[in-house]
Amino acid sequence: MNRKANIRQVLLNAPYTLWAAIFVVVPLLFVAYYAFTDSGGNFTLENLSNLSRYANVFKKSLLYSVIATIITLFIAYPFAYFMSKRSANVQRVQMMLVMLPMWMNLLIRTYSWTLILERNGIINNFLELFGIEPLKLIGTPGAVILGMIYNYLPYMILPIYTVLSKIDVSILEAAEDLGCNSFNKFRRVVLPLSISGVVSGIVMVFVPSVSTFYISQKLGSESEWLIGDNIEYLIKSTTDGMNVAAALSLVLMIIILASMAIMNRFADSSDGGMIV
Amino acid sequence: MEKNNKLIELKNIVVEFDGERVIDDMSLYIGDGEFVTLLGCSGCGKTTTLRVIAGFIQPQSGEVFFDSKNINGVPPYKRSVNTIFQRYALFPNYNVYDNIAFGLRVNKVPEKEIEQRVSEMLKLVNLQGFEKRSITKLSGGQQQRVAIARAVINRPKVLLLDEPLAALDLKLRKDMQKELKNIQRQLGITFIYVTHDQEEALSMSDTVVVMHEGKIQQIGKPVDIYNEPKNAFVADFIGESNIIDGVMEDDFKVKLDGKSFECLDKGFAKGEPVDVVIRPEDVDIVPAGQGMLRGVIKSVTFRGVHFEILIDVQDFMWMIQTTDEYKEGQEVDLKIDPDAIHIMKKSKYSGQFGDYSTYSDEMDALSEITEEDEE
Fold first, then answer.
1. Structural domains of chain B, with CATH
2. Are the Cβ atoms of B76 and A176 closer than 8 angstroms?
3. Where are the alpha helices (DSSP H) in chain A?
4. Mean pLDDT, range A60-79, rounded to an integer
């Protein structure tokens, strides 16, 4: 009986196990293989040891995505907080508005920002009406970070909103009943109870930001190229770039895993709401 | 220290939700150190009343006084009352100790004193050794105790309890009833207790406030509420009642079912139609010919302590509780002593309650889960 149930369990899981093996584990092994071999297929550590020339790119990627994640958090938290306080109908509409841009492709969304920011773009045309000199908006670090914030904001709002809307009203009333004014209520009850959503949001914004390659190409200048752009360039435009690209990916993955581990430490005390 | 007779006073309170009147011109005062129970079925306005006192709801009109000071508009966190919520509402992100210490920490009490007061509280609610326990790992009864400790540690003048035992099973509920009563005696503070369970209300309270449709139906000591209900609603809601149409013939004399009965009530006009309440346990069944009213036994149900017998008297179904067994179809007489009769003025509830023709066990079990615990 027990054995039979076990076999059934294994059979039921088989398609997913197979899927994960083919599309997750095998590609990862490939990445590792390429990272540790040269173009001839011989074992080498050169790819990794040569990465030091990408140190600045790594720094820049991390810096931009950390800044973007922090700003996103400060926009998303109040938004999610006030959204969770609205009536059910208003919440539904607001949720819709948050999700709407996600129905469009990231490339299109990013490209439309170039129309807004470029030298003859909407903003500069508008400024010209008042006789203001055109500003250099596109091709700046600010534009890249703006692109990250714009594209990944929903991923921060959603988990925070989910956690906030699940907090029982009577728990908030209990806090008031026990002497909390609004500020104390937020600090002692709401914030600690929403940390898990904040952590999920941070991970969901930070990970795609740090590995992005399109946003920085469209909205930044050449000097704003990030790790993702370098990986893309190596694969597409050089003949033996695959190995170095794999080494870059491997290191990037380790950085992401490390930052996620740190974030999860914060979330340890609270449960639920975790995506990873 | 002199006890304040009107620690809390509600004056002409009106609360409306979406145009619907939930509390209808309610006035009530509650004395210091009293155990007051707001009793009624769901939707009667009892929880709303509690929330008005706690400050979570602002009444549309009317005034709330605390220690003779008007506290309309004073936010909950500035009121010296604490609430025990229906589902406890403990903070899941804190352990037992931190939950109980919460109110003191908000008010910046030194940690040293907090430590001492929390351990006092843990002793009071019998949870010593649970300090570090996570809230989610506690049973319902234990969570209940933490909720009590968390509220009481702030030394409120009034503790508001919103159906605190509703989520517990019967046995635990009975134990907690006793324990709550003990805690109230020990602390000597006012308890305002909301429940739909009449047995709980009668056994715990100094004063019971029976509510229905946003109005107070009756205020009184439990014994008075039971023995001297004011109208047909109260008589029916509290315990079982046969409520028969009668006419006052004179002081101490009422006519029902065509017969004159002696009673202990006076002060009604001659010929005034009244509601006559006779409790099922106050009627004796005697052999036909020896009593005042003749009837036929329609059903006999064994209830443990007693038999519940339905008797048809002139198309009105009486309920009688007796320890003697009778057979269905038997013709018997009812004997009713003067002190078994209670006379009420006619009210808008007259005729709605007190006839057991439509009574069935099943309906009863559905509408009132606590029925079977009754004497």
1. 8-225 (3.40.50.300), 228-373 (2.40.50.140)
2. yes
3. 2-20, 26-35, 46-49, 55-85, 88-99, 106-117, 122-129, 141-166, 169-177, 182-185, 191-210, 214-219, 227-237, 242-267
4. 95
